[in-house]
């Protein structure tokens, strides 16, 4: 039986095993050690734990080791939940996954994301115990004819050009917010798309947005679902119907080809190499640190590297052990990957969320006189200009599945009403230009005040009136001031009471309030969003409104529940 077949049998043997490194007669009690690891490395860890836990194999003679298969995203959610945090696109912990003594996620990207949520959530200095590079997976016939594989050197910018210029190319990715392979591929593709702009910021944004939209259209929640999209036959019709390009781990390609599919997948090692899966060994329980260190020593040896090789993984430094089925043109060893900064990771995932989640949104923009205030950090343009630019750029991320409406507000904009509808909520596929033209025509009202509370209630009711079960329904209000209505209008308490009376739990609506500048009533805004569900975001420097806008849009991935 081949090594790959053995690996498959090992994976199917069970979801978890417990190995006891003690004898019933000699140990009155044992040290318990739980390890959580994803399915792609758990088989090797189980075998190594069984060997290490055999009597007489190490200094510690009484250890009970349990290796539990758990997706990295699920464990990360459980760790984040201990500090009442959540990760972008991951959501809340599922209630079943427990925080282990030792965690072996598939990538250090998870550690960065957790540190962004809470710097103390995971320790620093984790040791890598295995590695698998991220490759561009392409059906071999297409790789040969379209990319010159295996002879040509391929760059990610070449890939972006191919995706942009050929509508027949079907790009796929595993959901990046929950999958390290998808995230590493997304980061590399997004950087290549931006670089393809040739220094032209507008063109770079357009190329990057198009690439992200193409990825979003081809995303899959699970790796197995994505793999099923590759061609099931080598004839032209089957090839054109199947998936063309996807970032995957080297291990995934090895295991796929080991099943002898109708069309093999080429692993293209494109330049620059994305962040590789590095499987850090993370000790979460300090009381088990000494025992964990003993186990870690056994994972640095040749026997563990060979067990990794049998399931398509490389050793910690990138060298392959026995049984490793080396793909064509695979590098014999790997250089250490530089894990991106947490801010860069979260920034990209925020943009990804903004692109991928379908929504029905009413955008309401403050046009009071204070929006004419100049912004020194934005070259001296006024608040209105930077706000509208943020809105326009945000719209570039919204695909045609979105529904959007545009209002403005100040005081007495439409007769006695303090708000004015410019574009009703409707599908962008038919009114994108109308929305853009409306934004372009917006001008502040000289000496206009800020009837914020009346506008929020009216906007909420407008979103509720056409509530769509198939989308995330939200109201987003951008303002640079506190509620100021000379005609009276609702008080804060009255607004909250009206919103609560109007709200329907079966039809949730997110209220997203964005404050621009340092004169906003942030406390009152938070009371509103806490009461009905949503979030408040403030950009003290109006020049940063674009970043804040993306953060606010990404909130749509969370449930719109009041606190």
List keywords for this structure.
single chain; about 575 residues; alpha/beta; 6-stranded mixed β-sheet; about 40% helix; globular; vWFA_dom_sf
Structural class: alpha/beta
In whole angstroms, how far apart are the ends? 58 Å
In round numbers, the mean pLDDT is 88
Largest β-sheet summary: 6 strands, mixed
Residues in helix, %: 25-40%
How many DSSP helices? 20
User: Within the largest sheet, what's the order of strands?
Assistant: 1-3-2-4-11-5
Low-confidence spans: 1-25
Q: Name the beta content range.
A: 15-25%
What is the count of β-strands? 17
- As a whole number of angstroms, the C-alpha radius of gyration is 27 Å
Overall 3D geometry?
A: globular
Pfam family, one: VWA
Domain VWFA: 360-553
Protein name: Substrate-binding domain-containing protein
Organism: Dactylosporangium cerinum
Walk me through the structure.
This is Substrate-binding domain-containing protein. InterPro entries: VWF_A (IPR002035), vWFA_dom_sf (IPR036465). With 563 residues, this protein is of the alpha/beta class. Helices cover 39% and strands 17% of the residues. The chain is built from 20 helices and 17 strands. It has helices at residues 3-12, 42-52, 72-81, 109-117, 140-147, 156-165, 180-195, 201-217, 223-227, 236-241, 250-258, 289-298, 302-310, 342-356, 383-397, 428-441, 452-465, 492-502, 522-532, 545-554, and strands at 16-21, 31-37, 63-69, 102-103, 127-128, 134-139, 173-174, 219-220, 246-249, 265-268, 280-283, 359-366, 403-414, 417-427, 472-479, 510-516, 534-539. The strands form 4 sheets. A 6-stranded mixed beta sheet has the order 1-3-2-4-11-5, with helices on one face. Strands 14-13-12-15-16-17 form a 6-stranded mixed beta sheet, with helices on both faces. Helix 3 runs parallel beside helix 4. The longest helix has 17 residues, at 201-217. The radius of gyration is 27 Å and the shape is globular. The N and C termini lie far apart (58 Å). Residues 1-25 have low confidence and may be disordered.
């Amino acid at each position: 039986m081949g090594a790959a077949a053995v690996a498959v049998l090992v994976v199917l043997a069970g979801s978890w095993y417990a190995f006891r490194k003690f004898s019933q007669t000699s140990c009155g009690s044992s040290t318990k050690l739980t390890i959580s690891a994803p399915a792609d490395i758990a088989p090797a860890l189980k075998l190594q734990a069984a060997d290490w836990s055999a009597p007489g194999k190490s200094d510690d003679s009484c250890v009970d080791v349990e290796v539990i298969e758990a997706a990295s995203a699920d464990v990360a959610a459980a760790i984040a939940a201990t500090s009442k945090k959540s990760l972008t696109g991951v959501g809340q912990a599922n209630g079943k996954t427990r925080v282990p003594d030792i965690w072996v996620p598939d990538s250090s990207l998870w550690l960065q994301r957790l540190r962004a949520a809470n710097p103390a959530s995971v320790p620093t200095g984790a040791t890598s115990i295995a590695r698998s590079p991220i490759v561009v997976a392409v059906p071999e016939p297409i790789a040969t004819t379209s990319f010159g594989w295996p002879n040509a050197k391929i760059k990610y910018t070449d890939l972006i050009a191919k995706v942009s210029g050929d509508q027949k190319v079907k790009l796929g990715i595993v959901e990046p917010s929950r999958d390290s392979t998808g995230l590493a591929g997304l980061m590399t593709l997004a950087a290549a798309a931006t670089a393809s702009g040739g220094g032209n910021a507008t063109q770079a944004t357009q190329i990057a947005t198009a690439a992200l939209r193409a990825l979003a259209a081809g995303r899959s929640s699970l790796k197995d679902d994505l793999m099923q999209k590759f061609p099931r036959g080598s004839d032209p019709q089957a090839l054109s119907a199947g998936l063309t390009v996807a970032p995957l781990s080297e291990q995934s390609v090895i295991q796929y080809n080991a099943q002898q599919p109708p069309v093999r997948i080429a692993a293209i090692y494109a330049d620059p190499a994305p962040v590789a899966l590095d499987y850090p060994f993370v000790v979460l329980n300090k009381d088990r640190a000494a025992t964990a260190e003993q186990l870690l020593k056994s994972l640095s040896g040749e026997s563990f590297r060979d067990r990794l090789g049998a399931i398509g993984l490389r050793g910690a430094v990138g060298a392959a052990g026995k049984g490793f089925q080396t793909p064509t043109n695979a590098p014999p060893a790997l250089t250490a990957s530089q894990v991106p900064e947490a801010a860069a990771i979260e920034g990209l995932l925020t943009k990804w969320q903004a692109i991928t989640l379908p929504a029905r949104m009413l955008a309401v923009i403050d046009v009071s006189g204070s929006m004419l205030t100049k912004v020194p950090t934005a070259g001296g343009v006024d608040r209105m200009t930077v706000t509208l630019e943020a809105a326009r750029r945000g719209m570039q991320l919204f695909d045609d599945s979105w529904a959007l409406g545009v209002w403005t507000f100040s005081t007495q904009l439409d007769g006695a009403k303090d708000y004015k509808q410019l574009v009703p909520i409707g599908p962008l596929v038919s009114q994108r230009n109308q929305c853009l033209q409306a934004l372009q025509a917006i001008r502040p009202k000289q000496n206009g005040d800020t009837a914020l509370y009346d506008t929020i209630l009216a906007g909420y009711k407008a979103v509720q009136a056409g509530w769509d079960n198939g989308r995330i329904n939200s109201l987003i209000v951008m303002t640079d001031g506190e509620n100021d209505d000379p005609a009276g209008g609702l008080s804060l308490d009255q607004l909250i009471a009206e919103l609560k009376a109007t709200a329907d739990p079966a039809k949730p609506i997110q209220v997203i309030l964005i404050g621009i500048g340092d004169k906003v009533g942030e406390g009152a805004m938070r009371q509103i969003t806490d009461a009905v569900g949503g979030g408040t975001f403030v950009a003290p420097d109006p020049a940063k409104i674009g970043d804040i806008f993306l953060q606010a849009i990404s909130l749509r991935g969370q449930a719109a529940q009041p606190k």
